[in-house]
Amino acid sequence: MSPKGIAILGSGIFAKEAHLPAVAALNSGVAELKAIYSRSEKSATELATAAQQSLNLNEPPSVYHDADPNANIDALLARPDIAAVIIALPITIQPSIVRKALAAGKHVLSEKPVAPDVASGIELINEYNTTYKPKGLIWRIAENFEIEPAYQTAAKMVRGGKVGKVGFFNARVVGYVAKDNKYYNTPWRTIPDYQGGFLLDGGVHTVAALRVLLPGTMVSLSGYASLNQPHLAPHDTINATIQTTDGSHGLVELTFGSPVPSRSTLANSGITVTGSEGWISIVNASNADGKGVLRITVRTVTKDEKGRDNGETEEVIEEEVRGVKVEVASFLDAINGSDDGFGEPLGALKDVAFIQAALNSNGAPVDLVKLVQQ
Amino acid sequence: MSPKGIAILGSGIFAKEAHLPAVAALNSGVAELKAIYSRSEKSATELATAAQQSLNLNEPPSVYHDADPNANIDALLARPDIAAVIIALPITIQPSIVRKALAAGKHVLSEKPVAPDVASGIELINEYNTTYKPKGLIWRIAENFEIEPAYQTAAKMVRGGKVGKVGFFNARVVGYVAKDNKYYNTPWRTIPDYQGGFLLDGGVHTVAALRVLLPGTMVSLSGYASLNQPHLAPHDTINATIQTTDGSHGLVELTFGSPVPSRSTLANSGITVTGSEGWISIVNASNADGKGVLRITVRTVTKDEKGRDNGETEEVIEEEVRGVKVEVASFLDAINGSDDGFGEPLGALKDVAFIQAALNSNGAPVDLVKLVQQ
Predict the structure, then answer these.
(1) A117, A151: one domain
(2) CB within 8 A of A260, min separation 6: which ones?
(3) What are A274-325's pLDDT values in tens digits?
(4) Which of A250, A263, A308 comes nearest B279 by C-beta?
(5) Which residues of chain A have pLDDT under 50?
(6) Do the interacting molecules here have an ipTM over 0.90?
(7) Are residues A188 and A311 in the same domain?
(8) Residue B256 covered by a domain
(9) Do A14 and A136 belong to one domain?
(10) Chain A environment of B259 (Cβ under 8 Å)
(11) Segment B95-108 mean pLDDT
(12) Other CB atoms closer than 10 Å to residue B92's CB: what's the count?
């Protein structure tokens, strides 16, 4: 099979720090990065230069940007040698670019969230299902937590009954966003034109991890949202309680509104799932080489010959954080006919629905299943 | 003032390990322990013997029990030399004994919860307010977390604005109750005839601490309850989200349903309250002498001359756990005309209402204010 021609649309922090290395990590001969698009020429050129270096190319990928009508996004999408695009653009811009790319016959991997809100997500998904999927086009959402090997490993354990019947769970993400935070200083994040601010942008990851881990489907959410640090408007904090189809329930605490760094560093952020026979925790950590890992710890009850509890066992698994690499490789595999089912837009829509529900619940239960069926 | 004659009604674990030492810690001349009542003679005699020793008495307090009609609880309450009783009896028995004691003209300090459910609590409180309070009788609920110096210290800081405007809070208690746990083996706790089991019995403490700490009144609760360890029926776990009158919100996780001890020891149980300018945490710990303390840590933002965040300060305060001692002393003070307002039955009723709401919410918001006005 000849390498697929691909392009990266967007040249922000994540395109540079995550997507480009993921493309560089692809097996040789799988893809050829042919073009970079950004609204600004400067930014696109910078990423193209970085790409030439990291991909060891003879010349940089072609640069497309809004100022040149002969080298704008439409020109890029008109190229027959580009089969697929990776989109990492501002949240509210993405849906229109996804549409454009699909209409141009490109396979698409677009960054989460699938859309800024549930209604526009449903619209886009319906359009894809009706018009583009039948043509064999792949559209996936880059939800790296969903495909992250650590969550997949933990999910297999939990769903396989390792901790017994799941009873309750807990997800906590406590962030501190200083005014000089690099993500905060992306203009579209400083004054977001979408619900939830960082809660939508970052929160969907945690929801995706829960979606993967829990044997039951999250069906009802009651919660509260608030703004605690004015520079993070409209909201920076969600507290919610959730019920799943198997009767388990949990608490989700998402906040980027820490008043000081210690509120984040000492928060013991992470996920726990507790069952009748044990519990599992998944936390961010560093391994001996200083590499970012997700550390899974499973502790399960042991019994004596009469069936009485007499202790517990502990198992620790560390998985290097590599979800973006895996998702880009998996996207290329899907284009080449080997689809493992990750990155389904409907899954990503459920993550947006969760955040939207939490932002609007004000204590009342929101039916998460109905919400994505609007 | 001559010492008040007092009696302890109940001779279980808490009467022995907490109330007796609290009586022993009273200033000399404040009270004289004259009698012990228990349903069983053996148990009452044991506590009387322990009391003689720890209070350094010439003879043990008189023993009253159910088998002897001349030395039963009515005989005890008929004694004119006994002015006040401390009641630590099974949850469902207490209200009738509180009534009996008040009717006999005794001041009463009765263990939390004020009643097994909100309705019976309201009934009892109304009866007290109508019939006994006008006679000058004191009735207090022994809710030691409410009066615990650490929570009072932390409350002063939070309510005084130390962490800025309170935005969100978190209370987590994760317990492991083995089948050989000493409290679990109190017969009335093994098969409880009241809602919530340990969640009512122990959970009201955490709710009381929040009630003291938060500047806003907790007005709405949405949550879920479940049973994860069958020996703890009817319920062992609550997950709830709460809103207060000042718009702050929080999460409460109460569980005694840990499948293994590590789920409890590694849970980072405790309370945090986060405001716009800092946060406070209160956790159980041991001090240098190995004594049980509550450790309060307050961290607040510091600003440069232009008002920009430039760091944070940390303040740690450790308070010896001594709520029961303080509450017994305060009860005697109140009898002697110096009432500091602690132990109000209505406060304790709110704690029961919280647990009852969490057990019955099933995700729907419960109005906590209305619930205590039934």
Answers:
(1) no
(2) A176, B278, B279, B299, B300, B301, B309, B312
(3) 999 999 999 999 998 899 999 999 999 999 999 899 999 999 999 999 999 9
(4) A263
(5) none
(6) yes
(7) yes
(8) yes
(9) yes
(10) 163-164, 274-279, 300-301
(11) 98
(12) 15
The answer on A290 and A156 residing in a single domain is yes
In a domain, residue B111? The reply is yes
Could you list the residue range(s) of the whole structural domain that residue B110 is in?
Answer: 4-142+328-339
User: Are the beta carbons of A363 and B222 separated by less than 8 Å?
Assistant: yes
Distance CA A361, CA A373 (A): 17
Degrees, nearest 5: CA angle A272-A323-A178:
70
What pLDDT is stored for residue B374 in this prediction?
64
Do residues B327 and B343 touch, judged by C-beta distance below 8 A? yes
> For residue range B170-190, what is the model confidence (pLDDT) as tens digits?
999 999 999 989 889 988 898
Instruction: Give me A180's structure tokens.
Output: 């000089």
Q: Please, what's the b/e burial string for A47-68 (b: 16 or more CB within 10 A of its CB; e: otherwise)?
A: bbebbeeebeeeebbbbbbeee
A313, A277: one domain: yes
User: Does residue B71 fall inside a structural domain?
Assistant: yes
Closest CA of chain B from A272, distance in Å:
10
Record: contact B168-A249, CB cut-off 8 A:
no
* In a shared domain, residues B11 and B137: yes
Same domain, B288 and B333: no
The residue in chain B having the minimum alpha-carbon distance to the alpha carbon of residue A367 is B363
The partner residue sitting opposite B276, judged by closest CB among A170, A259, A364, is A259
Express each pLDDT in B307-335 by its tens digit: 899 999 999 999 999 999 999 999 999 99
Chain mean position to CA A188: 18
Q: Mean per-residue pLDDT for B276-304?
A: 96
- For position B80, which CATH number holds? 3.40.50.720
The SS3 of residue A289 is: coil
Claim to verify: residue A138 and residue A162 sit in the same structural domain: no
Q: Could you tell me what percentage of chain B is helix, strand and coil, using 3-state DSSP and rounding each to the nearest 5?
A: 35, 30, 35
Tally of CA atoms within 13 A in the half-sphere of A56 that contains its CB: 3
| Domains: count for chain A | 2
* Close Cβ partners of A306 (under 8 Å, ≥ 6 residues apart): none
| B178 within a domain of the structure (yes/no) | yes
